[in-house]
Specification:
alpha/beta; Rossmann fold; 2 domains; 6-stranded parallel β-sheet; 34% helix; binds NADP nicotinamide-adenine-dinucleotide phosphate
């Protein structure tokens, strides 16, 4: 129930209509406020999570308004993840290395920003008892999500991180940005034509391109003949969550590799943000289930 004391959380983007965050955050808030299955009441929280369509040119005035309205925190999606950074009084080390903020919280001096995509990306990988220091990560794409993936692979301590892209200029700029950062990361960059000779060395193969999602469903970023060279022990991770599975993950399963989709990353980045705002544990299962339901996926 919305009351006179309800506190605001939300997501800003332009457009924002496609965002699944309101579904999962409000499901979590409702679950925290409902009784446990054993009938034990939990401490109540009085929050609501709303979508805010904010045009790029209105970002500064919007976040001043949010401060005046005592908004407690918000997520950001396209096109605000980089543009918000100069408007914050503090930016976490992880957000600085990724070069993007997806979660903003109140501080004594204004707004602080962090990036929970890295923790979200890493969460499903923590289930595998790999000695990451011996492992080779191969990342397809060099856009925004690839930055969170590189930061995650660096946190795991991967022995080698290879990034594949279409444009040599963008690849070189991508590589340079990691060398120039506070905590430099050694990233090797390659054009797509080199993937065939690399794939057999991949222990972790991550798709960060939109190839495989609408309108490119039924397409994989990697040809069948190239995927056949993949080691069956590899982890193949597609950041896409619809369709589920993607063609890329179908190829991986055929090869006997471990296939991970992007839904858990989405859930875990949201859970990490909500936990930061509420400063208490959050019902991750409820968040996951609410997304599966809205996406029309079978009960998980
Ligand atoms: P982005 O910044 O636009 O980057 C996309 C990257 O893919 C760029 O490097 C782009 O190359 C490359 N690319 C695009 N089309 C391609 C094609 N046809 N063939 C080869 N490469 C292509 O987008 P993003 O924000 O990183 O998002 C990428 C994907 O990750 C999306 O599918 C998104 O839904 C998903 N994602 C999932 C989560 C999650 O929580 N699961 C979180 C973030 C993102 P150029 O630079 O050469 O154009």
């Amino acid at each position: 129930m919305i009351t006179g004391k309800t506190k605001l959380l939300g997501v800003i983007g332009y457009p924002v209509e496609h965002s699944l965050s309101p579904v999962m955050h409000n499901a979590a808030i409702e679950a925290i406020n409902s009784e446990n299955s054993d009938g034990k009441p939990q401490p109540k929280i009085d929050y609501v999570y709303l979508p805010f369509p904010i045009k790029p040119e209105d970002l500064k005035v919007a976040i001043s308004g949010f401060a005046a309205m005592d908004v407690r925190g918000f997520n950001l999606t396209i096109p605000h993840k980089q543009a918000i950074m100069p408007l914050l009084s503090e930016v976490s080390a992880v957000a600085r290395s990724v070069g993007a903020v997806n979660t903003v919280f109140r501080t004594e001096n204004g707004w602080g920003g962090t990036n929970t995509d890295v923790v979200g990306f890493l969460a499903p990988l923590r289930n595998y008892n790999f000695n990451w220091r011996e492992k080779v990560a191969v990342i397809l794409g060099n856009g925004g999500a690839a930055r969170a993936v590189v930061a995650g692979c660096a946190q795991l301590g991967c022995a080698e991180i290879h990034v594949f892209g279409r444009s040599e200029d963008k690849l070189n700029a991508f590589q340079k940005s990691w060398l120039d950062s506070d905590k430099p990361v050694s990233v090797r960059v390659h054009t797509w034509s080199e993937i065939s000779s690399f794939i057999s060395r991949a222990d972790l193969l991550v798709n960060t391109t939109p190839v495989g999602m609408s309108p490119l469903v039924d397409v994989s970023p990697v040809d069948d003949a190239v995927m056949e060279k993949l080691s069956p022990g590899a982890i193949v991770y597609d950041l896409i969550y619809v369709p589920n599975p993607t063609e890329f993950l179908r190829q991986a399963a055929t090869r006997g590799a471990i296939a991970l989709d992007g839904l858990e990353m989405l859930v875990q980045q949201g859970a990490a943000a909500l936990q930061l705002w509420l400063q208490q544990p959050v019902p991750v299962d409820v968040m996951r289930q609410s997304l599966r339901q809205v996406l029309g996926l079978e009960e998980g």
